[in-house]
Amino acid sequence: MGIIRVNEIYYSIQGEGNAIGQPTVFLRLFACDLRCSWCDTMYAVEGTDFKEMPHEEILSEISKYNCKNVCITGGEPLIQRKELVPFSEKLIKEGYFIVLETSGHKKPPEVFTGPSCLISMDCKCPSSGMEKRMDFTLFEQLGAKDQLKFVIKDSTDYEYAKSILEEHNIGCSLIFQTVYGEDITWLAESVLRDKLNNVRVLPQLHKIIWGEKKGV
Ligand code: SF4
To answer: Is 215 within a domain?
Structure first.
């Protein structure tokens, strides 16, 4: 029986990316091999705050919310790739739509490339301290239905994100999102000034609604 390390399961509003505002069940998996300086989910990165759950128990927990949108997040979900693939196949078979949140350093398995999934990949910019871990070839493999998200703290991050877009052939949706608490006005104005017309500037909606809390 497949076992997955789960940090939390909860029902909330999708706060990021193209599905922003949509009611969603969040499945937060435990552990991450990156250490971003501004990580807001360290409780799912290290420590002991996880439960080892069989697939059927997770499915049953998710089904209680009567919502077919599931966001698999972390931590870094692809650390548990071996178990996550058959589990995600079960979710898709039961009619769920999956958003997979992952960092740009692990190749998403094929199951997430189909029409029932959206890959939401992060490009870690210099303020994270993790930019050297990124694999830019993964960005170029994202499909039109997917999204690449740059979490931007300052002008160094912004210029870095711009250079990635100039240097790589990326065909998915592009999101520029501020680190929580940073000014979004300069980011919006910079995108307009530079005419980055294929970029979407977004806040983290759930934090505007509820603040920086666990489980929302
Ligand atoms: S990849 Fe995500 S979970 Fe991992 S350290 Fe960075 S922000 Fe935190």
So the answer is: no
